[in-house]
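User: Please predict the structure of the protein below. I'd like the answer in structure-token form so I can feed it into my own downstream comparison script.

Assistant: Understood. Taking the following sequence of 190 residues as input:
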Amino acid sequence: MKTKYFLLVLVLSSYTFGLQAQIQTINTAKSSVSWLGKKITGQHEGTIKIKSGSLEIKNNKISSGNFVIDMNTISCSDLEDAGYNQKLVGHLKSDDFFGVGKFPNAILKINNSSAFLNNVASVKGQITIKGKTEDISFDVTNEKNTYSAKIEIDRSKFNVRYGSTSFFDTLGDKAIDDIFTLNIKLLTNN
């Protein structure tokens, strides 16, 4: 009788454990965020570091997540001239773009997702840039402890006006696309 009771408890415990949420902490040293911004005359790209983050996985879905992106770490990887590189990064940190002095962090919050099917899930959440929060949706790919996503963001929704045809109509070849892309690769410690 004791053996049957033990087996029943073991089976129920396994079943309950499978339904419980699993918190996965992001390994910030091994994770990356790369950005790409385009303009009529070319493009620039670089990286931004993740300060902290975690995902909650339950029933093969992302039930929640929260990530802090350190805007002070924004860098440019395509300009080899140190002076031009520093000038661009300084401009991106200025109030013309991301106002890093006043808004040092961007926040990505995941509210829920569909179940992973063939390692891909559709995610819904919010992103906060320059103190303004907007709804966002994107796909996430999961392979073991790595989560990857490509997110396109309309900077005009966050009052990032410089060179934007949404705010200025006489820019000509000085126009910068409103849409910029983040390629995110998150490695978890679990």
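That's the full token string. The chain has one domain: 21-187.
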